[in-house]
Amino acid sequence: MLTPSGAAASQAVTPTRIDDLRLSHSIDDALAAALAEIVGAENVHADFETRLGYVRDSLPYAKYQVRSGVIPATLPSLIVRPANTDEVSRLLALSVELGFRIIPVGSLSGVLGGTLPLAGEVMLDVTRMDAILEVNETDSIVVVQPGMNGGAFEAALNERGWTAGHYPQSMLISTVGGWAACRGAGQASSRFGKIEDIVTGLEVVVPDGTILRVNAEARRAVGPSIKDIYIGSEGVFGVITELTLRIWKLPEVDTGVVCAFPTLQAALNATRRIIQAELRPSIARLYDEAETAGRTEGLDVFASHPIMGFFAFSGMRELAEVEQRLALAIVAEEGGVQAPSDPFTNWRKDRYVSLSAKWFEAGHFMDTVEVTAPWSRIPGMYEAMRTAAKAVYPGLHFGSHWSHVYSDGACQYMTFRLPPMADAEALPLHAKIWDVLQTTAIEHGGSISHHHGVGVFRNRWMRAELGAGLDLLQSIKDSLDPGNLLNPGKLGLRPAPGSVVINGG
Ligand SMILES: Cc1cc2nc3c(=O)[nH]c(=O)nc-3n(C[C@H](O)[C@H](O)[C@H](O)COP(=O)(O)OP(=O)(O)OC[C@H]3O[C@@H](n4cnc5c(N)ncnc54)[C@H](O)[C@@H]3O)c2cc1C
């Protein structure tokens, strides 16, 4: 899976065993001194162990590599931690002046390798920029710096009686800037929208150091949305240094019901009809048979109704109660029944906990792939994906849920797991499973990603996904960053010379 990209790559591929690198790594003292002039020496880190902490994000492939004592790509040359927009601007201007490459980093929870240093880049860690700058209750907006931890951000809003409505499972291990940079989704996206619906304004430092502000407006009609060039830009077009988000009053009630359905088709029909009836569940989640079984042990109703769904309604009590009643009527029309609430209570308790840690530690190869498709295509796409993934490895654990639903389609979120085996055997199987899941999504008129983004691991499907749109993104990149210095080789864009290639793209 990890191959050097042509002739130039041989310069970049240093010994990849972590223990070898520990003995042989070098430090660029001159560059460290230049960075220290901007941020102070205490905010530039050249020591090996700190740099080692930035060799991977939460991309499972990179985690497998580190588990085996191998560097996934390269060791970053330095870590720099600016305190404010001015320092970010001076750092990017310096990168152009001296010609070094640099990658914006939040909390490294991205799961597609968006922060992997492919050629010894400097890592620009924004987590010192972590304050709420303003809460305006009349306009119901919050202005926040990009490096604020998601959990701390939401807790601070809750203390004032507000919420941003964005609750990714990674809330406690990600930053607000990372949410926007990856075009993420929270568990209540069916009600509040994805991050692109929540962020209304931005401040960004573009690759030459210029500070660009997109003022927060309710709506506007002044050409294409510049804000949306940056939402989902994954650190390739600039560094996000400030965000304005919509906020909402904390709900009076927030209650969920668990339903059991006789078939997946019945559950999909009920969920689609609930959304198309303009009911607004805060949570709408369906689990296929494999995922239902793991969450409903001892609950008899699931023997005859093996598909589980959660529907939660929040807001003013009276309204939420009416919405729940109307939703349950649709569920009944599709053959569903109400079930005990334990699975929902358990899910709520663990909603911000990563379920993969124990499998990684036990040597398994576990990954998740999320795609989007229109309602009409989902049943066929799901069956095709399950069959194709199991054909790659018959003993594969494969499960799916649908947890972000819209009037026109939904996100299908799949988890697969290979048992412990040698990396040399597992990694080609892992790559092949990714390939069948991504190509099947495209064949079914879907998108290769709903909210995890592209990073480096999805590079090779970007042409199939975007067509000529990829050339448009490359033109924007070339115009903003002619030296290809800011997070090169991500989002399907041209890599820098000497870059390591991950997953063939
Ligand atoms: C257990 C687990 C559960 C997850 N659940 C969800 C989920 O429910 N919903 C969801 O959407 N995602 C989820 N993710 C994915 C991940 O948490 C998100 O993509 C998150 O938004 C990344 O934030 P981060 O601060 O960790 O960014 P990082 O991983 O540090 O960076 C991610 C990308 O954003 C860029 N970037 C970061 N900060 C900036 C900035 N200030 N300016 C410009 N570019 C920047 C980086 O260069 C990189 O390309 C999950 C991940 C894990 C491990």
Walkthrough of the structure:
By secondary structure, this protein is of the alpha+beta class. The chain folds into four domains: about 1-125 and about 465-500, Uridine Diphospho-n-acetylenolpyruvylglucosamine Reductase, domain 2; about 130-250, Uridine Diphospho-n-acetylenolpyruvylglucosamine Reductase, domain 3 (2-Layer Sandwich), CATH 3.30.465; about 255-350, Alpha-Beta Plaits, CATH 3.30.70.3450; about 355-455, 2-Layer Sandwich (GMP Synthetase, Chain A, domain 3). About 35% of the residues lie in helices and about 20% in strands. It is built from 21 helices and 20 strands. A seven-stranded antiparallel sheet has the order 16-13-15-14-18-19-17, sandwiched between helices. Helix 3 runs antiparallel to helix 6 (about 85-100) and helix 18 packs antiparallel against helix 19 (about 425-445). Bound molecules: flavin-adenine dinucleotide. Flavin-adenine dinucleotide binds next to strand 4, helix 8 and strand 11.
Give the tags.
Alpha-Beta Plaits; binds flavin-adenine dinucleotide; 4 domains; disordered N terminus; Uridine Diphospho-n-acetylenolpyruvylglucosamine Reductase, domain 3; 21% strand; 7-stranded antiparallel β-sheet; 5-stranded antiparallel β-sheet; 505 residues; Uridine Diphospho-n-acetylenolpyruvylglucosamine Reductase, domain 2
